[in-house]
Amino acid sequence: MSLHISDDTTPGNPFWRFSIEIYGRDAVKNACLALQDKAGGDVNLMLFLCWRAGQHLAPPTGDDLSAMISALDPVNSEVIHPLRQVRRRLASLPRARSGTLRDLVLKAELEGERMAQDLLYQQFGAPGDTTSLSPPVAARQALLSYVQRLAGSSAPGQDTEGLVRELTEAVFGNESTA
User: What's the CA gap between 48 and 82, in Å, rounded?
Assistant: First the structure.
């Protein structure tokens, strides 16, 4: 069964549409998953920071980032992460025995992702302070602040900074080197 992600599940949420389009690029997906694995980043939040930058919104403050992380925590811990664990367990079984169920769990996990993105958009997507920074520079700044927050008091390592650069280049193209 092939799963198609529709952009009409959340009418009025341009962030969801952006995510569907952008996450379909292998380079974006790979950079997001690498940052998730290496730095503990939340893919939905990383995509949201890129989307905000593309809307010329100022990078979030430390308090804003904390509020975003806190808002996502219940959805992540009670919906997305448990579904992801079930889906991964099912992946270890023969497809003939688990395929349909795994597809249903994946669909539910994607609904959880949509729920998280709706939450981010509704609570933090309203037009606010704009920035004169280019979108890739604003995104890089926001992403580096986020991964630094995840790392605690230590600065992000060169590997993490490189992954942030890869993500911004994958999202914004060559203009991200400016």
Answer: 22
- The neighbouring-strand residues paired with 130 are 57
The reply to whether the predicted model has a pTM over 0.90 is no
Cα dihedral sign for 62, 36, 70, 119?
positive
The per-residue pLDDT for range 136-176, each reduced to its tens digit, is 999 999 999 999 998 875 666 778 899 999 999 999 996 64
Whether 47 contacts 143, CB under 8 Å: no
CB 140 within 8 A of CB 175: no
Residue (of 158, 139, 149, 151) closest to 22 by Cα position: 139
Distances (CA, A) of 45 to 61, 81, 108, 120: 14, 15, 19, 8
